[in-house]
Specification:
One of its GO terms (biological process) is cell surface receptor signaling pathway. The protein is mostly helical. It is 72% helix and 0% strand. Helix 2 packs antiparallel against helix 6 and helix 4 packs antiparallel against helix 6.
Length: 222
C-alpha cells in the first residue's frame, strides 16, 4: 500500500506540472499576439505624440522665421522642395488605404523629414560655430531641431513595432537611405527659406499623420 500511494502521488505531480506548463505556454501565445485594446492604445499613444510633436514644430517655425528670415509672420506657400513627401492626397484613396500601406508610407515619410532636418541642423550648427554663438544662453535652433528629431525617431519606432506585429519579417532599417540634395546652387536666402519650407510642410504632414492614427485606432474593434 505505501508503494501504491507513492506512485499515485508521483502521477498526480507529473499531471499537475504538465497542466501548469500548458497554461504557461497558452499565456505566452496569447501575449505574443496583441489584443485589439492594446493595438488601439498604441495608435492613440502615437496620435498623442504626433500632436505634441506638431506643437513643437509650430513653436520652432515661429522662432526660425524670426531669427533666420527676420519676420515671424513670413509666409510663402508657392515654394516647394522636391525631396519632401507630397502632401496632396485624394480623400477617397486615403480612406481605402490598408493598415499596412498607411504605416509603411508613414515610416518612410518620417524618414524623409528626419533626413532633411538632419541636414538643416548640421548646416545651422556650422553657422553657429563660425559666428561664435553662445549656446549656453538659450536653446538654439539646432537644439530645437534635434528635439523634434527625437520625437520623429520615437514615432518611427512605434510604427515599426506595429508593422512587426503584422509582418514578422519587417525590420526597422538600421540607417536612413542616402539623401540626394538638390544640385542647383542656392543663395543664402534660398537656404534660409529652405528651412522654413521643411518646418512648414512638416507641420502640415503631422496634421495628416495624426488623422491616420485616429483612423487606425477607430478601426481597431474590441
Amino acid at each position: 500500500l505505501p508503494f501504491q500511494f507513492s506512485s499515485h502521488n508521483v502521477s498526480m505531480t507529473v499531471w499537475w506540472r504538465a497542466l501548469i506548463l500548458l497554461c504557461c505556454v497558452l499565456d505566452c501565445v496569447e501575449s505574443s499576439s496583441p489584443s485589439p485594446v492594446l493595438q488601439r492604445n498604441k495608435y492613440n499613444n502615437s496620435f498623442r505624440l504626433t500632436r505634441s510633436t506638431r506643437t513643437r514644430v509650430q513653436l520652432l517655425q515661429r522662432k526660425y522665421k524670426e531669427q533666420q528670415l527676420g519676420d515671424k509672420h513670413f509666409e510663402d506657400r508657392s515654394r516647394q522642395l522636391k525631396d519632401l513627401p507630397s502632401l496632396s492626397t485624394d480623400f477617397y484613396s486615403w480612406l481605402k488605404l490598408t493598415e499596412w500601406d498607411r504605416l509603411h508610407a508613414a515610416f518612410w515619410d518620417m524618414q524623409a523629414y528626419w533626413k532633411m532636418l538632419e541636414r538643416k541642423r548640421k548646416q545651422l550648427e556650422k553657422e553657429e560655430k563660425e559666428q561664435m554663438v553662445d549656446r549656453t544662453v538659450r536653446i538654439t535652433l539646432p537644439q530645437s531641431i534635434r528635439h523634434i528629431q527625437f520625437d520623429l525617431r520615437d514615432l518611427m519606432s512605434q510604427v515599426s513595432s506595429q508593422m512587426s506585429y503584422m509582418n514578422s519579417s519587417w525590420t526597422k532599417p538600421t540607417s536612413p537611405p542616402p539623401f540626394n540634395p538638390q544640385t542647383r546652387s542656392k543663395t543664402e536666402w534660398d537656404s534660409r527659406v529652405e528651412g522654413y519650407i521643411i518646418l512648414r510642410d512638416l507641420d502640415l504632414y503631422l496634421t495628416k499623420l495624426a488623422r491616420d492614427f485616429l483612423l487606425l485606432a477607430s478601426k481597431t474593434h474590441l
